[in-house]
Amino acid sequence: MRKYTNEQILEKIVCNRCGKETFTQRGLLKEDFVSIDKNWGYFSDKDGEIHRIDLCESCYDEFCKSFKIQPTIEQNNEL
Predict the structure, then answer these.
(1) Where do the domains of the chain lie?
(2) Neighbouring C-beta atoms of residue 73, cutoff 10 Å
């Protein structure tokens, strides 16, 4: 969950799973998060709803452990 200041500057991200807060320094995050934005469409029970979640790295790792097929991982050499 993202929290913004009145000036619409990202202030912090709160993990939807564990509640861990990560604050920004001059608008830059101090840790990385996984963000999922899903606009549900036809043929779902959530038609017309938009769901947004943010997960810290440890919650993302726990989430992935529950998968029968693990995510594809590639190296990004241009950091």
Answers:
(1) 2-65
(2) 6
C-alpha 70, offset from chain centre: 18
pLDDT in tens, 36-53: 999 999 999 999 999 999
Task: Name the 3-class secondary structure at 43.
Answer: coil
Nearest-angstrom CA–CA distance, 56 and 61:
9
Residue 59: Cβ within 10 Å count: 19
User: Minimal CA–CA distance to 32: which of 40, 24, 42?
Assistant: 24
Name the phi and psi angles at 13, rounded to 5: -120, 135
